[in-house]
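Hi R.,

Here's the input for the iron/sulfur cluster complex you asked about:
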Amino acid sequence: MKEPRHWLAKKLTQAARRYLVGPEQRWIFERPSQDWSPPLIERTSLYLHVPFCRHFCPYCPYTKVPYQASLESPYTQAAMAEVDWWANTIGPAEITSIYIGGGTPTLALDSITSVLERVRERFHLSGDICIETNPADVNSEVIARLHEMGVALVSLGVESFQPRHLATLGRDYQPAVAERALSLLAESHFASVNADIMFALPGQTASEVTSDLEHAVQLGADQLTTYPLFTFPYTSVGKYLRLMSVRMPDLPTRREHYQAISRWCAGHGFERVSVWGFKRGGVPRYSSVTRDGYIGIGPGSGSHLPDGFVLNTFDLKGWEEAATNGRPAIALRMPFAGEMSGWWWLYWRFYDTRIPLDVIDAALGGDAVKARRWLKVIERVGLAARHDGFLELTEAGAFWLHLAQNYFALNYVNTLWTRARQEPWPKAVAI
Ligand code: SF4
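And here is the predicted structure with iron/sulfur cluster in place:
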């Protein structure tokens, strides 16, 4: 990290994690040893990564390749073989939810159909299936296929309804395309339709953000996920923004947008379900990241196992070769030590903005006293308040957590993903 504030954020998070989780936790991803295999698991979620896009957005950090129809068949064979590998190693677990992301998953619906069939054969699927899609990719045929597959929740990457912001982001559609896609999804009887809306874009005003939220809701979105532009150093976004002669907003502007979003949602019947997300009514919550455990299928997908995190190789060919030959496609693993699993659980409860106090002891074990001490500090400084057995983040707490998340993403995810995309099978990555 060259920027001083990123360097400082990195040092602060390193000190905090050492103090909280303890020195026995090594923050290093390494090649798994030959004799390692995942433990048996009774219940977990599943993430399927579909790495195809027709158009590359310059800010995008995800693993993807340009779509070609000829890539689908080898991808499908490898993904089905990887489902088999997981079933053979962790056992016929209950799959409590499936999240299909990318890339643009709806470019490869035949592949997804085959992979879901294999998941149903090898596991016990008990939960909802969520999928991401892109406005340019939604039509009535795609929607019919999603229903056939049993997809319940759909998330549409709208990002903005303003032509100049779509241009800044390098999105390849006009607002009318996003409007049509959202209303088509909203009238198609899914359990929930989420719209992703970006804020703190260069030159964007708070009223433009809330007008985007309003428009998404008028078109039928019942969940809203709002997020700022992450500037991952390895994406081309920095160069792209310089070419467009625009500057990123400063912290006060970002805070103004964040508060405007919270106020708008509270005033329009949307409850906060995470630092970034809001939903209306009793629809099932759409979320890609808050699951307690998951297995990942596809290049670059991660898994959160009871004994640690693992990450597949980012290299499409390397992943296909390993998976179709019945070998694990896992390039890196970071085992858990001490109460790391419990601290990870607590981190995501902060992300939910609600921490259930009655399960702290069970989740944090030997570190529960330390965790409670810190929760008390957070409460005392006004970042959280107790309510019905939960510690709930205040608006200020949610804002500061969203910033911490931003730096967490930049420092950890960027370090890991940068190396993983440079080398298909890195030896070790310290985060
Ligand atoms: S933002 Fe979405 S559509 Fe754009 S390149 Fe990334 S995965 Fe593809």
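One thing worth noting: The pocket of iron/sulfur cluster is lined by residues 53, 56-57, 60, 62, 64, 102-104, 134, 157 (CB under 6 Å).

Cheers,
M.
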